[in-house]
Amino acid sequence: MTAGAEPPDPDTLDVEAVLLASEQRPISPEAIAIATRLAERSGAPVHVLTNARIWGTSFGFPNPGLYPSKGEWDKQRAIVDETVRALERAGVEADGHVIGARNATKRIVREARRLRCDAIVMTADESRNRFVGNFMWSQEPQRVRRRADVPVYLVTAP
Q: Which of 12, 26, 47, 61 is the most buried (most CB within 10 A)?
């Protein structure tokens, strides 16, 4: 599959694992439903991943004041726990974890490779102009789609 291309119909894709990812936003029930469809068809597990954003560097060096706060970590853990429970209620094997990264796109794609996922599902905002979108954190799912070498299903946030 070509990076950035529209993914195939979820009912035609055989997968060994699915990554249900978020750059920091809550994972929508619609995204959970698509991940469930993909996983049930092949009996695959779903790995849930969220990112607690690291806000940058100070003079080129990591700065503890720019790391996620305890509250931010807890919020992301709650999103993962809620999503894993929803997947397990649907009868899908699921696990999850939270990462901390400045560049969520690179980490999500790297985790998908490491976990040998054949598809990524993310909740996303409407796509913006690519030039403007590159400056917006909310366009991270679109950047994941452009960079990933597996199908990326973007579910528009309600």
A: 47
